[in-house]
Amino acid sequence: MYMYVDVLDARPKLSEHHKILFDDKKISIPWEEGKTSHFQHLWIRDHCQCPECFHPDTKQRLLNTFSIPNHVRPESVEATETGMQISWKNGHKSFFTWEWLHLHSYNPRLERYLSPQFKLWGSEITECPPEVEYESVMETEKGVAEWTRKIYIYGFCYINGVPVNPDATKALIERIAHIQHTHYGGFWSFTSDLASKDTAYTSLPLSAHTDTTYFSSPAGLQLFHLLSHTGGTGGQTLLVDGFRAAKLLRDEDPTSYRILSNTRIPAHSSGNNGISIQPYAPFPVLNHHPVNGELFQVRWNNDDRATMDRWNDPDEVEAFYDAIRSWNEVLKRRESEYWEQLVPGKALIFDNWRVLHGRAAFDGSRTMCGAYVSRDDFMSRFMMTNSKREDVLRAL
Ligand SMILES: [Zn+2]
User: Which residues pair with 56 in a beta bridge?
Assistant: First the structure.
């Protein structure tokens, strides 16, 4: 489930033909697979896993790193059945399992990167959208595991059988994590009523966008629950898989893909009196993982885009407009758009780092409620319900 796994499916084994060696600087561990891992003494001493150096419960370092002499050196190194035992010159003993050493080998890196198993979707998802039952999520950890797994894989999930009231909806989202508060508050519930002529909560259509592009770290998940819709029709919810749209753009128009990956777009939220939220720096539409290069976040809200008055070269302006026009065209294709009429009792949750949302115009009076959960809190819940705790912590 996590990003990195050990290269070996079986337990890593020491070579039978070569021995562990160490010199003044490093320890060299020859593996059965033919590679040799080198660990500098200073590094290996700093990562001692013994309960004096590493707290077994908090998983935090207890060792004072700065007490280690620069030229620290083992007195002896011994291979046992399960791992490597080091006796240091001052008498301290360290033990590392073969699994730990193999997983954390940095010279060379031995781990293999596994791409997350995302399922990309278009309008056809309407036939079989991911869903879970309210009761199962509320009553079992297995239910939460299934729910968070579906959100991770598809970027969204329905919850059926939700009692039609704000309290039950709030309890539902809190099964993942505490609610992420913003300048709009925490859990929200409001009625859009044309009769009130309140333009703040209008009934106008909204094209596909992600929320909070003006945060340094945008809201992670968003949940919607339609509590009632009376005296009118419309208001269907629109979802677009941003990862699928990005893939299409990359295949069909790589120049635009590159521009959307590199052009930083300023954004802000300043409509509320006394508030102007801005990220610490502008971010591109398509954000890639700094280590593995994969797309991990889509930020797109054309309405919240601030004035773009910083260009390396003024000729970039036209190219940028070409790129967002091309992106907009992919997003608005019939096969990119998945429309669904939400109904009371069926809540929707989606990954705001991947899935864009919007809605059709409506008339009458609608009451919706919902909330955000931060991305880090979601990922923690997802990993800990879908993997053994030891397996998650092992990779730290
Ligand atoms: Zn120790």
Answer: none
